[in-house]
Here is the input.
Amino acid sequence: MEQNHKHVQQRARQHHYISVQALCNNVLKQMAAGDIKNTAELLYTIKQQWKHIDINQFDVVYHYVTTMIAVMDESLKLYPAFPLKGQSFNHYIEGVYVAGQCAEGESLIEVWIFLTGSNEWKQRMLHKVMHLLEITYQMEQWVLKGIDLTTGERFLRMKHENK
Here is the structure.
């Protein structure tokens, strides 16, 4: 019995857990690349990755379940906007995946981020991504679309051409 208990503890230590933000990054990365072919595959992907979520991020089981449902629901709503077409790019900024595209013949760059966390952290990350866009794409117009998949909260930041 004691030997079996040690084996279970060892297996638990070897299991790699991920944060909700890491799951959001993975979902965005796969959706942007077109790796997810339909909504059934999207839900299956989230369900499979959800098995690796660190439950210690949640105060109560209720939050664990409702967050999973919210991530699935918001991902389904956003699915038609993907995959990104044209010239695409990606960056990681402090653990947040940033995916973008610039359609050929257009000067508008579309950028997506999926965020989860405190309001202060989300605002800080939006500002960091905006700063990256200002430096990297000084001459182009851009639109930054941020979504908190756990709450459905949307963020929209834009840079228009000054004439």
User: Anything to note?
Assistant: Residues 28 and 114 are 7 Å apart (CA to CA).
